[in-house]
Amino acid sequence: MERERVLVPEAELERQREFEERIRAMFAARQAHPLACVDTFGCQQNVADGQKLMGMLESCGFTLTADPKEADVVILNTCAVREHAEDRVFGNLGALTHTKKENPEQIIALCGCMAQEQRVSERIKKSYPHVNLVFGPHALWKFPELLWQVYESRRRVFSVQDEHGTIAEGLPVVREKGVKAWVSIMYGCNNFCSYCIVPYVRGRERSRDPQAVLSEVRELVEAGYRDITLLGQNVNSYGNDLGSGYDFADLLSEIDRIPGDYWIRFMSSHPKDATRKLFDTMARCSHVAKQLHLPFQSGSDRVLREMNRRYTREQYLELIAYARSLMPELVVTSDVIIGFPGETEAEAMETVSLVEEVGFDALFTFLYSPRPGTKAAELPDPFPRAEKQKWFDKLLEVQNAKSAALHAAYVGKTVQVLVDGESGDGEFPLSSRTEGNRLVRLKGGKELIGKFIHVRITGSNTWALYGEAVQR
């Protein structure tokens, strides 16, 4: 894909800023003070997209609110990966009929991955007439123009054209207050795993220019962010489209040279593109957290082939062994799917055995959920959900026992953490994370938030550690 076609020209971005000014002037003429609500579902990439939407809304003159009842514009920023998330979105859309009835001038928008699916946009057209605007990830950068079209025409606007996708640099961003920030280094996906809808709704892989990424990370560090996560559907293939030989490990090395006190994390990482160079770089870099989220999805080679994952169980185990040989303290987490179409109980137990063999610190576990439009959704699936649930429960039993044991081994140790906020726990009021991203609830005052401190671990359970600050 030609880079000229990927990058949105500055003239087009300036045009969007003109639409922002038109909307701002419209409300100023009315002496109105509009409010906007952005409700984001799904992954960190969606969170990053939501922050850009909030930035553009502020540029249009809106003040942000968390209450859709009082908002003049409500945006549902959606995820298409899981059926449960989709059901929640449609439930929320239905509930917004009441806010629209109370405020007929309210603009309701649906965006994100769900919006890019043709079946969803058609359903919105037919069954949700109160929704004014529908646009997919490809059209996010021109949101001001789309919103202006709604106001000017008083008609419904749909922008869900199928395209490879673009990169728009310099969009305004409203980031969460605190110490954590997300930086998208690439967009789209070329993998076409048979169960996944993402390549169909986010387009082909396209990498941001390294200097743009470095500049953004540098600004974040200087602004006081201490825990920065690099985002991509497959960060390990970063740079493949740049044509320069510059890869993800090179980007990590350059980021690591930015001065400051911070951790760099990344996700998601695909095993087929994870290289020894990447792990060598992680081990060498002082700012790159010794944490690896490497989804394996299944422990069965046959199921992996059906999933189109393009690696084997043995290759995955070799990657983990090499990474741990360089970084014995490495915290390893993963994603896993149980109940893929045609998967047998024996194959599901191969997944459980891989979990036992690797000894993951934590897992994100999913019962297979068919996504219309994917190849897996067309496969025969003879085993009932109740049977798959038994396999799933066995997986959870094994992993929860391992997580509890790993956490228990921390009791009595002193670890460094970044205090990132309040926990809501009266006895342990602060929330923090270790370099390996383990949750530590701890005793102490709010003045510790945003600081790297040392904590003595006094207790644990399956999901968290507990401790108290110590002088070091």
From TrEMBL:
Its EC number is 2.8.4.3. CDD domains: Radical_SAM (cd01335). GO terms for cellular component: cytosol. Its cofactor is [4Fe-4S] cluster. Its main location: cytoplasm. One of its GO terms (molecular function) is metal ion binding. SUPFAM superfamilies: Radical SAM enzymes. Gene3D superfamilies: Methylthiotransferase, N-terminal domain (3.40.50.12160), tm_1862 like domain (3.80.30.20). It catalyses: N(6)-dimethylallyladenosine(37) in tRNA + (sulfur carrier)-SH + AH2 + 2 S-adenosyl-L-methionine = 2-methylsulfanyl-N(6)-dimethylallyladenosine(37) in tRNA + (sulfur carrier)-H + 5'-deoxyadenosine + L-methionine + A + S-adenosyl-L-homocysteine + 2 H(+). Keywords: 4Fe-4S, Cytoplasm, Iron, Iron-sulfur, Metal-binding, S-adenosyl-L-methionine, Transferase, tRNA processing. Binds 2 [4Fe-4S] clusters. One cluster is coordinated with 3 cysteines and an exchangeable S-adenosyl-L-methionine. Signal peptide: none annotated. It is an enzyme of class 2 (transferase). [4Fe-4S] cluster 1 binds at residues 43, 79, 113. [4Fe-4S] cluster 2 binds at residues 189, 193, 196. Monomer. Catalyzes the methylthiolation of N6-(dimethylallyl)adenosine (i(6)A), leading to the formation of 2-methylthio-N6-(dimethylallyl)adenosine (ms(2)i(6)A) at position 37 in tRNAs that read codons beginning with uridine. Belongs to the methylthiotransferase family. MiaB subfamily. This is tRNA-2-methylthio-N(6)-dimethylallyladenosine synthase. The lineage of its organism: Bacteria, Bacillati, Bacillota, Clostridia, Eubacteriales.
